[in-house]
User: Fold these one by one.
Assistant:
Number 1:
Amino acid sequence: MIKIRIATNLLKRPFLLLFLFMWPIFSFKNISADLEKWILTKQCTLKVNGSTNINKFSCIIPEYTQPDTLVFYKRNKNELMKITGSMALEVQKFDCKNAMMTSDLRKTLKAKVYPKIIIVKRF
């Protein structure tokens, strides 16, 4: 009985019914063709470039541990790129190809206290 009443009430308000069905279509129209999706898999390699007051460095995580997805998009050409999604990085897996630099990076990131860096971005 309740379902019939709800459907009957919606039919009495055709504008509301039309809005409910058309809203999803028009709400996604604002996102232009500038949409890119990255799927991070176990075969991916992550590289971080940085510098200190002494030297530049480059560290990698040779194998990403779990699948994650990042979506990059712009609503128009004048807007900055926005990012949604998340990724988790295991600090112990960073390798800077220099034992001292790798150790310093892990110490700076407090690998023993925070074994994972989780980056989450939602709009």
Note: The first strand starts at residue 35 and ends at 40.
Number 2:
Amino acid sequence: YYLGKTYQDLKSTDLLVIPTTMAKNVHQLVERYRSLLQPLVTEQAENNCLCLCPDLWNDEYRKANYLDLTANYFYK
């Protein structure tokens, strides 16, 4: 199957996403999902139906510390 037949000549830069584009899209997705999840998490916290579980860990090789936060909730 030859893409150029159907879609004319294509450049690899048109098909492959460059790192700056990926980074921009990731930030947009984070903001989108944050705005969708915030009302849900707030409602569950107000109803005492939310549990936050922190997890601290480190990478000795990279000398980096990490904090992971898991949220569990249920509907009344």
Note: Strands lie at 50-59, 64-73.
Number 3:
Amino acid sequence: MRVCFDSLCFASDRLQEDGDDENHCEIVTMSNGKVITSEDMATVNVQELQTLLSAREARIRELEIQLRQRDEEICDLRSHLDKFQSVFPFHIHNNNHLNSVANDNSIARPKKQRAQGISAEPQSLVSIQELSQQKFNTFPKNDRSRELIKAAILDNDFMKNLEMTQIREIVDCMYPVEYAAGSLIIKEGDVGSIVYVMEEGRVEVSRESKYLSTLAPGKVFGELAILYNCKRTATIKAASDCKLWAIERQCFQTIMMRTGLIRQAEYTDFLKSVPIFKNLPEETLIKISDVLEETFYNEGDYIIRQGARGDTFFIISKGKVKVTIKQPNTEDEKFIRQLRKGDFFGEKALQGDDLRTANIVADDPEGVTCLV
């Protein structure tokens, strides 16, 4: 009995030790004095890892979005670069022609960087009277469509410098066309005769069968073919059902010619009223008017600053300016005189003297317009 009792006591002690081992947890004291067990520590570590993983996944998604945006920007810039490269020879030819005009008449063309406008292709000679009497087919549009077309033109690198009168006529003459999803709208390499503005839907742009970009409503496409007489630079397909507005090359160019000839006649008549030009031959005046550009200044704007270097000759076509000279050893300016429509300034630039000797300040509440 003694042996059996001792055996039972030994077994009981072992069972109690095993139970203590199973219930034992390591005690950890945190730096803030809080006491947690090893099991709690494991739970905290898992939560921290999950938080880190969630943060990294969010960062990855953010970087992926940025990458897609940059890819889209690269595609857009490549598209713009291709467009500019495709018309670069045209600009070289055009600039050489304008420079030759200036040299032939011994009048230095201003070196000021001028905004690139739109040049219609040469057509048979017609009179201003014939162009002014020509009627265009116009198509009704609601205000939303008209504003969308106007905004699209002003957002386009090649058309944003059109005059508002030209834009209004283009908007009036654009007609509606629709394409079903999958339809071919423009084929790369073809000779184009239509420019489009997207109102509804999406189109995909590709070159040499490689996807470039997707265009959404409010975009112009197909403009290069009618502006510069070049072949289509890309293929455009309808990615969804599309509603577009379109205008034919002939109508577009007639609008450009009409405004251009009317402006040329106005400039030529104005130059005849300017003493320095009034005795020049008509042909010379026409060539000068072809290279003139209107520049607008608000009241108080400095058109010329004394002491600055410049190479531009100005003719006032609207408004008034004041001539002032800076007083020595002071910031004050002495009023010299006032110039009005038909007066000119900066003529020394044509004689090789590029240092401005006085200030010319716009002095009209309605602003000043100069031909440069």
Note: Helices lie at 2-23, 38-104, 128-133, 143-155, 164-173, 223-228, 249-272, 282-290.
Number 4:
Amino acid sequence: MKMPKRLIASLGVLMLSATPLLNASADQRGDIVLIAVGTGIVYEILEGVL
């Protein structure tokens, strides 16, 4: 099954964003989630522009 490049890129960003959550304390998790969400939003904006 061929996966679209956009899906593969999204999964890669998600995996990279989620990795620090495994080792973070409870206080750090909120900040990391905000960064991950922000990264996803920026990716979507760039995808629309490019």
Note: The mean pLDDT is 64.
